[in-house]
Amino acid sequence: MSINSALWAGASGLLANSSALAAISDNIANVNTVGYKRAATTFSPLYESRGAASRYAAGGVSSINRLEISRGGLLTPGSSATDLAISGDGFFVVRNASQTTSTTDPVYFSRAGRFEADANGFLRNDAGLFLYGWPVAADGSITRNPSDLNSLEAINLSAIGGAAEPTSNVAVNANLQASQTVSADEATYVAGTSATNMASGAITPDFQRSIQVYDSQGGARTITLSVLKSSTANQWHAELHVEPATDVTTGSGLVDGQIATGIIAFDANGDLDLTNTTLPTTLDFLASNNSGALGATQFQWASGEGIAAQSIDLFLGSATQPGGLTQYDSPSVLLSTQVDGAVFGDFSGVEVDGEGVVFAKFDNGIVRRIYQIPVATFVNPNGLAAESGGTYSITPDSGTFTLNAPGNGGSGAIASSTLENSNVDLATEFTSLITTQRAYSASSKIITTADEMMDEAIRMKR
């Protein structure tokens, strides 16, 4: 009878609004939970199809709770470089183990980006899940696969030791005085003879400056540039030698620690003349353990040093680039030297850029790429299944994932030192709380009213 259906309609109203209250309660309780996604309740009527002449029977209501996963929360400043947020679509890839033992190990996706290094150096979020990323190879390359989880590994900071970087580029910015008087020693100058060169100290250079470079082990080495005005106009004799000379072994044509000799030439305007300049601009040091005989003008790090080979490009100037050597009629001066490389330094922290690249920082100024954090996107993120710890898993409704570099393929960029707040709006939740309470009370009134009517019907028999 219709009264019975009214009772069931009232009961369904109580159940549906109880479910709505539970969702609202979770929303309010998690208003400050990082990356939390609001649960929204939708109501659907349960009509029963009957003929037009039939008496109406109430069908009641059902409720469905869905998470608003695709709706982002407000991004706010974090307190650590490993506090991460995704500005746009996508999810972090996290797992509950630092190493996967099989392809069936569960994988989860999360927007909760408060990661900290644990005792073993792995980045883990508040739920204890490990953050996964693409490792950077020794040559700086990254192998990205949009669908292969096996190309990812748990990001670990403890495996990062100290770092040193050998010098590979030196730029010299200096002026040599055009009116410099030609020394009397210039007449007897011979670069390859100790008694008549600048490296030995037998001849005093018109201008000399030392440059500090770094070897493969981060050791500081000194290379000295010495120049002597030539009797040929606009030309200078030049020597590059290592101090102390015992740091290198040299082949024929080089003495007293020399690694290069030649002429530095200028044009009539005081600019470097590359055509007539013969001083080598590439210094190729052979390794300490080189056992082969050294050819003319070859050199190597002294045996026993244990230093690897390295090549240093020496920039003295060009017509297309500012800086370098000039010859103007003002006192000779070294304006600046630019040297890359660094001495050994300890790991001092990490930084993450907008492309998700994790950089290891060292206290000697070296910064190296070590990982890139992928962003997983879905065709229907709202179809993901909610799991504990603010994570989600794949369902048929969500579709499969695609791993993208942040900012590519429709994925959001990574914001470092930033956290994503929950997408809960308290004003909306309190309003829903009031309307849900009223709807629940009204449904209870349906039950009490239907009960009174049924009781009245029963009493008709008496």
Please tell me about this protein's structure:
It is a single chain. By secondary structure, this protein is α+β, with helices and mostly antiparallel strands. Helix content is 13%, strand content 33%. The chain has helices at 2-29, 426-459; strands at residues 39-45, 61-67, 75-77, 84-87, 92-95, 108-110, 116-117, 123-124, 130-135, 153-154, 163-165, 169-175, 207-214, 220-229, 235-243, 248-250, 258-265, 282-286, 299-301, 310-315, 325-326, 333-339, 342-345, 347-352, 357-362, 367-372, 375-377, 385-387, 391-393, 402-404, 413-416, 418-420. The strands form 9 sheets. Strands 5, 6, 9, 10, 24, 25, 26, 28 and 29 form a 9-stranded antiparallel sheet that branches. Strands 12, 16, 18, 19, 20, 21 and 22 form a 7-stranded mixed sheet that branches. The radius of gyration is 38 Å and the shape is rod-shaped. The two termini are 20 Å apart.
Outline:
It contains two helices and 32 strands.
Helix content: 10-25%
What proportion of the residues form beta strands (DSSP E)? 25-35%
The average pLDDT value, as a whole number, equals 89
Q: Evaluate the radius of gyration.
A: 38 Å
List the helices and strands and how they pair.
Blueprint: H1 2-29, E1 39-45, E2 61-67, E3 75-77, E4 84-87, E5 92-95, E6 108-110, E7 116-117, E8 123-124, E9 130-135, E10 153-154, E11 163-165, E12 169-175, E13 207-214, E14 220-229, E15 235-243, E16 248-250, E17 258-265, E18 282-286, E19 299-301, E20 310-315, E21 325-326, E22 333-339, E23 342-345, E24 347-352, E25 357-362, E26 367-372, E27 375-377, E28 385-387, E29 391-393, E30 402-404, E31 413-416, E32 418-420, H2 426-459
Parallel strand pairs: 12-20, 12-21, 18-19
Antiparallel strand pairs: 1-2, 3-32, 4-31, 5-6, 5-9, 6-29, 7-8, 9-10, 9-26, 11-23, 12-22, 13-14, 14-15, 15-17, 16-19, 18-20, 24-25, 25-26, 27-30, 28-29
Helix pairs in contact: 1-2
